[in-house]
Amino acid sequence: MKVLITPSQTGGRISAIASKSAAHRALICAAFADKDTRILCHELNEDIEATVRCLSALGANIERDAPYYLVKPVKNIVKGATLDCGESGSTMRFLVPVACLLGADASFLMSGRLPNRPLSPLREELERCGITFSEAGSNPLVCRGKVTENEFAIRGDVSSQFISGLLFALAVSGRAGKLRIIGKLESAPYVDITADMLRRFGVDVSTTEDGYEIKKNGGLVSPFDLAVEGDWSNAAFPLALGAIGKRPVSVSGLDENSRQGDKGILDVLRSMGARVESDGGCVTVYPSALGGARVDSSQIPDLVPIIATVASVAEGETVIYNAGRLRIKESDRLLAVSTVLRGIGANVTETEDGLRIVGVPALSGGEVSSFGDHRIVMSAAVASVRCRNTLTIDGAEAVAKSYPKFFEDMRKLGLK
Length: 416
Fold this sequence. Notes:
By secondary structure, the chain is an alpha/beta fold. The chain folds into 2 domains: 2-16 and 231-412, UDP-n-acetylglucosamine1-carboxyvinyl-transferase, Chain (Alpha-beta prism); 20-216, UDP-n-acetylglucosamine1-carboxyvinyl-transferase, Chain, CATH 3.65.10. The protein has helices spanning 20-31, 46-57, 89-102, 122-128, 160-173, 188-200, 232-244, 265-271, 304-311, 333-343, 374-383, 406-412; strands spanning 2-5, 12-15, 37-40, 61-65, 68-72, 82-84, 107-109, 132-133, 141-144, 151-155, 177-182, 205-208, 211-214, 225-227, 249-252, 275-279, 282-286, 294-296, 317-321, 347-350, 355-358, 366-369, 391-394. The chain has a 4-stranded mixed sheet with strand order 2-15-17-16, covered by helices on one side. β8 (132-133) and β9 form a beta hairpin. The longest helix has 14 residues, at 89-102. It starts with a strand and ends with a helix.
C-alpha cells in the first residue's frame, strides 16, 4: 500500500492506544493463571494477535468481546503444537522459554525477518538445561525436552525479551528460581514491565545484585479484571508531530508513572528545547525552536526512528548512540532511518552504533520505502509536516504490526 501525504497544518488531540508491551504480558500471565481473566484492551494489532494465536495453540481459550479479551487459562498443555508467531519477536522470545519449562515440545513458525533475528544466547542457555532445538535458522524452530533447572544466566545486552521470557517461564512453572544477568542490562524498563505484570498476578519477583529472583509460589493468580495502559512507544509519534508541526498536539490516556521506558520521549524532546506539558494523563507538546542533543538510546531503542526525524529539522547536531541492536529489528533500522531521511533531504550519517544528524530548515519530500517496518512508516509520516512537497510512503501497511489506526489518528490531527 502506498500512502501519499501532502504538506499539512497539524494539531489537535487524540487518545493513546493500548500498550502492546503490556498486552503481551497480560495475556501470557492470564493464559496460565488459576482462573479466568478479563483484559480491557481497546486495540488489536498483528503482534498481539500473534500472542493470542500461540497461547490458544498451547491450550488457552481466548475470546475477543471488544474492548475485552476473555481469557480462560490452559488446563492441560497441548504437546507438539505449532505456534504461529508471525513477525512478533516478543511473542516468540517470551514463549520459547515457557514452552521449554513446561515440556510442550512446541514448534515456532516465523514470518518476515523474524527467522533471521537472533535467539542466542537464549538458545544456548536452554540447550545447557537439556532442550534440543532444530538446526539454527530453521523455520519452524522445533523445541524438544523439558527444563528442570531453576537457575539461569544470560547476557543482558542482546535482548531484554530473553530475560522476560525466562521470568515468565519460572512463574508459569510455579518454581522458585534465580536469573543472573551477565554484563549491562539494556532496555531494562521492559523487564520492569514484566516484573510488574507478574506481581499483578501474585508472583513474588524481586531484583538482586546481579539479576532477578522468583520466590516459591503457587502459580499465577488472576486479578479477574485488568486494564492495559496507554502506549508511550506509539504516542511518541504524534507527540513528536507537535514539536515539529505548526500547532500543539495532545495525547490523552498516558501515565507518567508508567514503567514503560519509552515515556523517555518527553525527556528527549525537552532536551531538544520542546515545550511539554502534562495534566491528568494528557500530554501536550507545542511547536518549538529545537536544537541538537546527545541521545543514549540503550534504554529506549524503539524511539530512535522518531528521535532522528525530529533531529533532522532541529538546529545543530544530534548524536544518537548505543543503538547497534537496531540492526536486528524488523529492518536494519539504522540503515532504514538514514536512507529514508536522506531520501527526503535530511543530513544523516550512520555511525558504528548510531546516527549523526545535522538539522536542516526543511525537508524536500519524495517517495520512500517503509522497509517493511512499522516505526519507519510512522516516522516518515511525521517528517512529512516539514516537507516542501508531497511525501509518498511505499509499504505503509506495515503500521498494522503495532498501530493499525495510525493514519486514522493522523487524519484527526490534520495530516492530509
